Amino acid sequence: MNRVILSLLAKRLLFALLSLLAVSVIVFAITAVLPGDAAQEQLGQDATPDALAALRAQMGLDVPAPTRYLRWLWGVVRGDLGQSATTQMPVGDLVASRLPNSLLLAAVTALFSVPIALALGISSAVWRGSWLDRIASNLSVAVVSVPEFLVATLAVLVFAVQLRWLPALSYVSDIESVGQMLRAFAMPVLSLCCVIVAQMMRMTRAAVIDQLEAPYIEMVRLKGASPLRMVLVHALPNAVGPIANAVALSLSYLLGGVIVIETIFNYPGIAKLMVDGVTQRDMPLVQTCAMIFCTGYLVLVTLADVCGIVANPRLRHR
After folding, report:
1. What pLDDT shows up at residue 314?
2. Are 162 and 245 in contact (CB under 8 A)?
3. What is the pLDDT of residue 229?
4. Best exposed site among 179, 183, 242, 246 by fewest CB in 10 Å?
5. How many domains does the chain have?
6. Whole-angstrom Cα distance, residue 295 to residue 6?
7. pLDDT at 219
8. Which residues pair with 90 in a beta bridge?
C-alpha cells in the first residue's frame, strides 16, 4: 500500500471522526429543543412548578445546555452513557438488551438482499436490453418509489390479514425453532429487502456497465474471450470498488428504514427503543440511540470510500 493510498485513507478517517463530532452536536441540539422533558412527562400536566423544578434539578435538566452537552460527550467518550430519565436504568444496559436484535435483523436482511441484488445487477448489465434487464429495471424503479412503511403495510394486509400466512407482529422472544424464526423475520426482512435490493441492483448494474464499456473490454472482446470470462475475469475485478460502494451505501439505508419497520412490526430492537424514548422524552436514551445509528452510517460510508480507494488501480500503481 503506497503513500498516496495511506494519505487518502487517513483523510477519510479524520473526516469521519469530525463528522461524528458534528453529528453529536446536532443530535444533542435537536433533542434539547424538543418540547417537554422527562420531568414533565413523569409528573404530568398537573404538576406544580416547584415539583417540576425539584425533579429537573434531580435529573440535571436545570444545567445550561452547553454544560450538559460537554458532560454527555465526556461520558460517551469514557463509555458512560448515563441513566435513563424514566426508568433510572443505565442506558448502556437498555441498549445492550435491544442492539443484538437490531443487528440480527440487519444481518438477515443483508444475507438475503446482497446476493440477490448483485446477481440481478450483474445479470442486467451483461444482458443489457434483454427482457430480464427491462423487467428488473422497471421493477426497481417502481419499488424505489414506494416508501418502506407502505411496503410493510401492504405486506401486513396481504400476508397477515388476507392470507394469514405470517404474524402481523414479530415476537423474537418466543423463537424456539427454525420455522418460528422464519415466521418472525419474514415480513420485516421482506419489507427492508424490497427497497434495498432495488437500490443496490441499480447501482451495481451501472458500475458493471461502466466497466463493460471501457476500452480494455473491447480489446478483450477482439481477442475472442467468452462473455463469461470477459465479465468474471476482466470487468468484475475492476468494478469491485464501485460495487462495494453500492453495497455499503445501500446497507446504510437499513439504518433509516429499520426505524419504521421495527415500529410497524413492534420488533424489539434499538430503533423501537429510540421511538419509545422520544415518546417518553427520555433524552439520554434518544441521544445514545441516535448516535449509534449515525455511527453505523458513517462506518458504512467510510468503508465504501476505503474500498473505492484501495480498489482503484490508478492509485495502487502510483
Report:
1. 62
2. no
3. 77
4. 179
5. 1
6. 22
7. 82
8. 83
Given CA atoms 236, 242, 245, 251 in this order, what sign does their dihedral have? negative
Grid-cell match 438477515, residue found: 108
The CATH code of the domain that includes 183 is 1.10.3720.10
Half-sphere exposure of 29 (CA within 13 A, CB side): 6
Cα R_g (the chain), whole angstroms: 24
Contacts 24+ apart (CB under 8 A), 73-82: 73/24, 73/28, 76/24, 76/288, 76/291, 81/284, 81/288, 82/284, 82/288
CB 104 within 8 A of CB 190: no
> Measuring CA to CA, which residue among 55, 170, 171, 193 is closest to residue 116?
193
Domain containing 221 equals 3-316
Distance from C-alpha of 70 to C-alpha of 80, rounded to nearest angstrom: 13
Rounded to whole angstroms, the Cα distance separating 205 from 211 reads 10
pLDDT of residue 172: 67
Residue 63 phi/psi, 5° resolution? -85, 145
DSSP 228: H
Q: Please state, in angstroms and rounded to a whole number, the distance separating the CA atoms of residues 257 and 251.
A: 10
Separation of first and last alpha carbons in the chain: 10
CA 142 to each of CA 117, 139, 169: distance values in angstroms, whole numbers, following the listed order = 15, 5, 26
Task: Give the helix ranges, DSSP H, for the chain.
Answer: 3-32, 38-43, 49-59, 65-78, 91-126, 131-144, 148-155, 178-212, 215-222, 227-229, 236-238, 240-264, 270-279, 283-310, 313-316
Q: Is 202 exposed, middle or buried (0-12, 13-18, 19+ CB in 10 A)?
A: buried
Please list, in sequence order, all residues whose beta carbon lies within 8 angstroms of the beta carbon of residue 194, skipping any fewer than 6 positions away: 143, 146, 148, 151
Taking the mean position of all CA atoms in its chain, how far away is CA 24? 18
